[in-house]
Write a structure and sequence with these properties.
There is one protein chain. The protein is 37% helix and 21% strand. The protein folds into four domains: 101 residues, Methane Monooxygenase Hydroxylase, Chain G, domain 1 (Up-down Bundle), CATH 1.20.58; 187 residues, 2-Layer Sandwich (polyphosphate kinase like), CATH 3.30.1840.10; 163 residues, Endonuclease Chain A (Endonuclease, Chain A, 2-Layer Sandwich), CATH 3.30.870.10; 185 residues, Endonuclease, Chain A, CATH 3.30.870.10. The strands form five sheets. Strands 14, 19, 20, 21, 22, 24, 25, 26 and 27 form a nine-stranded mixed β-sheet that branches. The chain is α/β, with parallel strands linked by helices. Keywords: ATP-binding, Kinase, Magnesium, Metal-binding, Nucleotide-binding, Phosphoprotein, Transferase. Pfam families: PP_kinase, PP_kinase_C, PP_kinase_C_1, PP_kinase_N. It is an enzyme of class 2 (transferase).
Length: 707
């Protein structure tokens, strides 16, 4: 296993973020959406530094013998990561300056800095500063009276270097350095719209409004230089290493420490005076290895709040969520689910069917119990409100709340408290186990007085907000075997003792890895017999070395393998001798590809699983994940058809090297997300007994092409 050829997890993730940057560079993407991709790239990189780079830095501080057990040098990995980050940062800056700013100008939108202002605009900005901004500012002097400067995580700060005191100002220091947090939230955003001039529109960073007003803040000095810095702190909670004590208190304690975690990165303007940077380092204790050259502006994620302009060409065309072809728009969803299985495909179809189901269950006097897993929920969660209502109506409501969902711990604590107060039974998982599965189970007493169970299995969170941005698959079912096994999973989560005996579901941490290995082994046997053998896998991340080795073994045996990996992909495809039968692509488009689908030829009786789990060690061994089979033939063909659209994408697909997959000669362009919406929009309500998509056939891999 030590000789296993893989790509570094962190370098692979940086390749993914490079694909995000490609969308910002693409002229086919609407102009203001390109700015949003810059914001996504910046936000992603912030989290990467807070988590992954911070982890690598911690590992470099381990004792030499301990580091040796890791199998790779953290120092070398960190060095490689920082080199690639620096390259991407340069490309990011060039994309903004050389592509997007000129394109905005061509469309009569001008993002100015203080040097670009006309006399009239400068006068307007000066008045705006005095009336709207000045009272929000509170600079702190970095002098002998200040022993330590604490910088908040992810906040932009402006530094002021004052020099050349005016002779009339007695007692002024020759030089001074001051720091101030940029008051973005109190101001109501990062950008200021200046008055239009005809068809020309003008926008100014709040930073530059302050630069215009800075001389009035410090009248004792002739020269005032304003620059920006931003600190990212270590965000790892290390909860998995804790095995004793009260978990909730540990989470609360770790959240408090997160804001004061050690610095992972200090971004600074390279034009900053050396005196300013020296003072920042002295007062914060930040070392040179945490310094990263940035640009004039930081926190490009604030471009999510760039002023809105109504031109349709600036934005993606509207795609209203589609009604479901087999679920009723009004009336009982439980009754419809009781008659047959249904697949839901957010964001193409409305997530409201899930919240409607919960509201119906809360109000139905025959529903006795509701069980659900919550990993990330919306800030104003209709899901949680329905659960609280059900609890108040006397239902037995069991909620498994994951307190270790990174960056959502505080929100989950808030909702857990609300649920407990409403009378729900809230289960917190042990520190060593994270519940990432997305399960809902409803128990109802039927007319014949028997109890029937209804389930919803999903690849996506019970979150109304992300359901509009992430592509997912969800299965509504009353299938007796699936609901019985879902109940067994909830029993395991409740008791955390006996491992459930399952035949249909593949559940981590006790059955998913072994189940996947068995399915791959079957394909290997088929290939060795000279029979058709293939595997198609769609996921966010493929990192686990054991599963990569298994796929290499399958490739060597002649199994054709297609990978659609959005993010981290450590397997190296298309290499003679061990992966020549493996191809890989990834999609980055308007929506975040979030569904996981596993397809196995299985001797002509194709098996299709949909799952919450990526193939990462943490998902397979340290999380509760569920892969559920699509048993209904029509729905299985539906999943395959949508998967085939992604396999045929030649507009937004990239290969392993991040090169776009281009249409072959004579082939029409296929953009999977556009085609998916069109196909789902065209689905007519079909007879439940014959719900089979037209022109959908069982397919193996579309190509034997290497790479």
């Amino acid at each position: 296993m030590s000789a296993l050829k893989t790509l570094s997890r962190d370098l692979s993730w940086l390749r993914f973020n490079a694909r995000v940057l490609q969308e910002a560079q693409s002229p086919d993407v609407p102009l203001l959406e390109r700015l949003k991709f810059l914001a996504i790239f910046s936000s992603n990189l912030d989290e990467f530094f807070k988590v992954r780079v911070a982890t690598l830095r911690r590992l470099t501080n381990l004792k030499k013998k301990t580091r040796a057990k890791l199998g790779d040098s953290p120092k070398r990995q960190l060095r490689e990561v920082l080199v690639e980050v620096s390259r991407q940062q340069e490309e990011f800056g060039a994309t903004f300056r050389e592509q997007l700013l000129p394109e905005l100008n061509r469309h009569h939108i001008h993002l100015l800095n203080e040097a670009d202002l006309t006399d009239q605009q400068r006068a307007w900005t000066t008045r705006y500063f005095e009336e709207k901004v000045r009272d929000l500012l509170s600079p702190v002097a970095l002098d002998d009276t200040l022993h330590h400067l604490f910088l908040k995580d992810q906040a932009v700060y402006l530094t002021f270097f004052l020099s050349q005191p005016r002779e009339a100002q007695a007692g002024a220091h020759a030089e001074r350095v001051l720091v101030m947090e940029l008051p973005t939230k109190r101001h109501g955003g990062r950008f200021v719209r200046l008055p239009d001039e005809g068809e020309e529109r003008y926008v100014l960073f709040l930073d530059d409004v302050i630069r215009v007003g800075a001389p009035a803040l410090f009248p004792a000095y002739e020269r005032v230089e304003v620059n920006a810095i931003k600190l990212s702190r270590d965000a790892e909670l290390d909860i998995e290493e804790e095995v004793s004590g009260d978990l909730m208190e540990k989470i609360r304690s770790s959240l408090a420490k997160r804001a004061t975690g050690f610095p992972a990165r200090l971004l600074y303007d390279p034009r900053m005076p050396k005196e300013t940077l020296r003072a920042i380092k002295q007062k914060t204790g930040i070392t040179d290895d945490a310094l990263v050259e940035g640009s004039r502006y930081h926190n490009f994620r604030d471009f999510f709040g760039f002023p809105h302009f109504d031109e349709p060409s600036f934005h993606y065309p509207a795609r209203p969520a589609l009604p479901h072809p087999t679920l009723p728009r009004t009336g009982s969803l439980l009754a419809a689910i009781g008659q047959r299985d249904h697949l839901l495909h957010p964001p193409y179809q409305s997530f409201d069917y899930v919240t409607r189901l919960l509201r119906e269950a809360a109000a139905d006097p025959r529903v006795s119990a509701i069980s659900i897993t919550l990993y990330r929920v919306a800030s104003k969660s209709a899901v949680v409100k329905a659960l609280m209502k059900a609890a108040r109506h006397g239902k037995q409501v069991t909620v498994v709340v994951e307190l270790k969902a990174r960056f959502d711990e505080e929100s989950n604590l808030f909702w857990a408290d609300k649920l407990q107060r409403a009378g729900a039974h809230v289960i917190f998982t042990p520190p060593e186990l994270k519940v990432h599965s997305k399960l809902l189970l409803i128990a109802r007493r039927e007319a014949d007085e028997t109890t029937r169970q209804y389930a919803y299995f999903s690849t996506g969170n019970f979150n109304e907000s992300t359901s509009q941005l992430y592509t997912d698959h969800g299965l509504f079912t009353a299938h007796e075997g699936l609901t019985r096994e879902a109940a067994a999973v909830f029993g395991y989560l409740r008791d955390q003792q006996a491992v459930p005996q399952l035949e249909l579901l593949l559940v981590a941490p006790f059955g998913l890895r072994t189940g996947l290995n068995a399915l791959i082994d079957y394909e290997i046997k088929q290939a060795k017999k000279g029979k058709e053998a293939y595997i198609i896998l769609k996921m966010n991340a493929l990192e686990d070395r054991g599963m990569i080795a298994k796929l290499y073994h399958a490739s060597e045996a002649g199994v054709r393998i297609e990978l659609i990996v959005r993010g981290i992909g450590c397997l190296v495809p298309g290499q003679a001798g061990y992966s020549e039968n493996i191809s890989q692509r990834g999609l980055v488009d308007r929506y975040l590809e979030h569904s996981r689908v596993y397809v196995f030829a299985h001797g002509g009786e194709e098996k299709v699983f949909v799952s919450s789990a990526d193939w990462m060690t943490r998902n397979l061994d340290r999380r509760v994940e569920v892969a559920f089979p699509i048993l209904d033939a029509g729905l299985r063909a539906e999943v395959r058809y949508l998967l085939d659209l992604q396999r045929q994408d030649n507009v937004k697909a990239r290969d392993f090297e991040n090169c776009f997959v281009l249409p072959e000669e004579g082939k029409k362009p296929v953009q999977a997300q556009v085609a998916t919406y069109a196909w789902l929009k065209g689905m007519k309500r079909r007879a439940r007994a014959a719900a089979q998509p037209a022109a959908v056939a069982k397919r193996g891999p579309v190509s034997k092409k290497k790479g």
